[in-house]
Amino acid sequence: MKALVLITSLSLVSHYSLADIKDIDAAANTMNINQLSQYSQNTSDYEQAYAFYRLAIIANVSGQRKQAANSLNQAQNTLENLLSAQATADSQALLAAVYGMQIALDNSKGAEFGMKTATLLQQASELEPTNPRVSLVKAINAFYTPSVFGGGLEKAQTFASQAITLYDLPCDTICWGQAEAYTWRGLAKQEQGDLTGATEDWQAAIDIEPQYGWAKFLLNQQAVKQ
């Protein structure tokens, strides 16, 4: 009996340790916070940082701000360690996204992380000019940054559109964010009063990821308003 329990436990650990980006996205799309927590504890390197990032987003949406902050700190530490060993555009872009979310949760961190975010995105652009996730994080950053400080809704749309185009390029390993790019562009359009364009983008996101809960929520919210 003990042997059976041990084998089962090892099997579960093996399953979670083999989680890849698609597995993490699937858990995030359905807001499965327990599975994301498992992935964040039993993966490593970039995948672990990505799992912590997605866990932070779902925890924040669920009102668990302490867990969100802790998960962001874990993602930050993992990515900073990775970048100290080797600079990659994907690690730089994800760390910029983590910094940006930390600022969103605590505005007092803007002074600490604002410039770091801009520097990381610039470095990532120089390292991989055609990386769609770099453009996506630029879009998110621009959405939350006033135009007087170099952001704004027009730039958010431009970067999101750039990301959408770049997602058409072949991708073999780190491939997250395509549906998200449409969603952020839709949000920028909504803020500018283009509700038809926003709805089209959110539907496009669902066409790409049928289980994408955020785009579904936005579409349902828009339908209720109409």
UniProtKB/TrEMBL annotation:
Alphabetized UniProt keyword annotations: Coiled coil, Signal, TPR repeat
Keyword hit for Coiled coil: yes
PROSITE patterns in UniProt: TPR
Signal sequence extent: 1-19
Cross-referenced InterPro entries: OspD (IPR004894), TPR-like_helical_dom_sf (IPR011990), TPR_rpt (IPR019734)
The name this protein goes by in its record: OspD family protein
Keyword Transmembrane attached: no
Residues in coiled coil: 58-92
Pfam families hit by this protein: OspD
TPR-type repeats, residues: 179-212
Species assigned in the record: Shewanella metallivivens
